[in-house]
Amino acid sequence: MYKIKRDDTVIVISGKDKGKKSKVLRVIPKDKKVIVDNVNVVKKHQRPTQKMREGGIIEQPSPIDISNVMLVCPNCDQKTRVGFKFLEDGSKVRYCKKCGEIVDKS
């Protein structure tokens, strides 16, 4: 289980897009990568196909390593490390190590 999930707000901490804050579109656990909106955008030369009538050069975000992003806490609005703890009902949740608040939307 990773500390970053889809729809989390993250900030890039290294690479050419360092400092950008955006939303996670997809997590790829097998490769330990995430796809973040408007981060690591590459140009792809696309041929016309049945689905996509027009070809040309399209821009799309490509995956970056999960270690290059940090979660932005929705409560204190700062980049933070994430911890896990168990609640009284036995459920496992993520929490912000700076403010101690629960990050998961229940």
Task: Please outline the helices and strands.
Elements: E1 9-12, E2 21-28, E3 33-36, E4 41-46, E5 56-61, E6 64-65, E7 69-72, E8 79-80, E9 82-86, E10 92-96
Antiparallel strand pairs: 1-2, 1-7, 2-3, 3-6, 4-5, 7-8, 9-10
Secondary structure tally, helices: 0
Q: What is the CATH-assigned architecture of the domain at 8-79?
A: Roll
Largest sheet strand order: 6-3-2-1-7-8
Work out the radius of gyration. 17 Å
CATH class annotation of the domain at 8-79: Mainly Beta
In percent terms, what proportion of residues is strand?
35-45%
Largest sheet report: 6 strands, antiparallel
SSE class: mainly beta
Q: What is the mean predicted local confidence, pLDDT?
A: 92
Helix share bin? under 10%
Regarding quaternary structure, how should these chains be classified? single chain
Function: One of the proteins that surrounds the polypeptide exit tunnel on the outside of the subunit. One of two assembly initiator proteins, it binds directly to the 5'-end of the 23S rRNA, where it nucleates assembly of the 50S subunit.
Protein name: Large ribosomal subunit protein uL24
Family: Belongs to the universal ribosomal protein uL24 family.
InterPro entries: KOW, Rib_uL2_dom2, Ribosomal_uL24, Ribosomal_uL24_C, Ribosomal_uL24_KOW, Translation_prot_SH3-like_sf
